[in-house]
Write a structure and sequence with these properties.
With about 325 residues, this protein is an all-alpha fold. The protein is built from 11 helices and 2 strands, in the order αααααααββαααα. It folds into 2 domains: about 30-170; about 170-200 and about 220-325.
Length: about 325
């Protein structure tokens, strides 16, 4: 009898661990930033001022990162959480967009000009979101990000208070252009990493376009770029997380920057970017991320994702030039 129990116990534990991994391997659903902002305003008695929806959405995205099914996983060291890699990569993609927006809000959105004083709450929130994403103790990652949320909440409270003119959000074309330039670089990097899933021979164009340009060390003219097969699903899910957060931020900014976009006749272009990115959130109808050949018999999910990212990135480039025009 004891022998049977000894044999059954590890098998039972493995079954339970496998079931929990299946349950935890979950990406949260998208939400309506405008509706969430309305509920946020009602709950905290905030006024719906310029910048409120963007800041509220940033708070909601961080909250979704920490309080989704299974909580925040990237810093867990116990099974079954430690065996998961798809969700932690998804979390890192979301976190990258959170960090970028928090910094842009600190350096640009909340300041009228380069010589103006930065907002004290955003100055505190920004470095907290840049804290290590995998620290599980003293201090833990979740605790630092929750502190960042508290400073964001303090900022949005001051933002909606007429008695606090020091807290501002400037919805200007140059501010939006600055953020889009950073988004463009993030998406460009993800697109290159996704496309390299099948390996590519590329010409070195690092110094193209500037005859006086130089670089630190010499690089070969022809390069073979290939994402390791062990990292293909990591890049795929990082992209899913990054675009999930980006979709929400864009929808929020469409409201806060509405007058700017309308004046530049850029609303349709802005909405097309959102639509392209929404395609990246389609359910994956396969047990794993497939990595077939370019024109092979099996799908290559990375190349499909790269296509959507590249189309959105091209639209962002066009939009930035449109915003730059008078």
């Amino acid at each position: 009898m004891k022998r049977k129990i000894l044999i059954a116990t590890p098998i039972t534990l493995l079954v339970i661990c496998g079931a929990m991994m299946f349950w935890l391997n979950h990406e949260p659903e998208s939400f309506d930033p405008i509706e969430r902002a309305r509920l946020h305003a009602e709950a905290h008695n905030h006024a719906d001022v310029t910048g409120f929806i963007t800041t509220s959405t940033l708070l909601e995205v961080v909250d979704g990162l920490l309080d989704k099914r299974g909580g925040y996983i990237s810093n867990d060291i116990m099974p079954p959480w430690v065996f998961l890699d798809n969700v932690p990569n998804w979390e890192f993609g979301v976190l990258t967009q959170v960090r970028d927006l928090a910094r842009i809000m600190r350096n640009d959105f909340s300041r009228s000009q380069t010589q103006s004083t930065e907002d004290p709450d955003l100055a505190e929130a920004d470095p907290l979101f840049h804290y290590a994403n995998d620290s599980w103790i003293f201090p833990d990652t979740e605790g630092e990000y929750e502190k960042g949320m508290e400073y964001l909440e303090a900022y949005v409270t001051r933002l909606s208070d007429p008695a606090e003119p020091g807290a501002q959000f400037y919805a200007r074309a140059d501010n939006l252009r600055t953020w889009l330039e950073l988004v463009e670089k993030r998406l460009g990097s993800l697109s290159q990493r996704l496309s390299a899933s099948v390996g590519q021979d590329r010409l070195n164009t690092d110094l193209a376009g500037d005859s006086a340009a130089s670089q630190s060390t010499a690089a070969p003219g022809d390069m073979e770029v290939k994402t390791s097969w062990t990292q293909i699903d990591d890049v795929f899910y990082e992209t899913r997380g990054s675009t999930w957060a980006l979709i929400h931020f864009l929808k929020a900014m469409e409201v806060d920057f509405y007058d700017v976009l309308r004046k530049k006749n850029a609303l349709i272009s802005f909405r097309q970017i959102i639509r392209e990115l929404e395609s990246t959130q389609e359910p994956l109808h396969a047990p794993m991320v497939l990595n077939g050949d370019k024109f092979g018999a099996f799908a290559n999910h990375s190349l499909v994702m790269a296509n959507y990212i590249s189309r959105a990135n091209a639209a962002i480039i066009d939009l930035r030039f449109l915003l730059q025009q008078g």
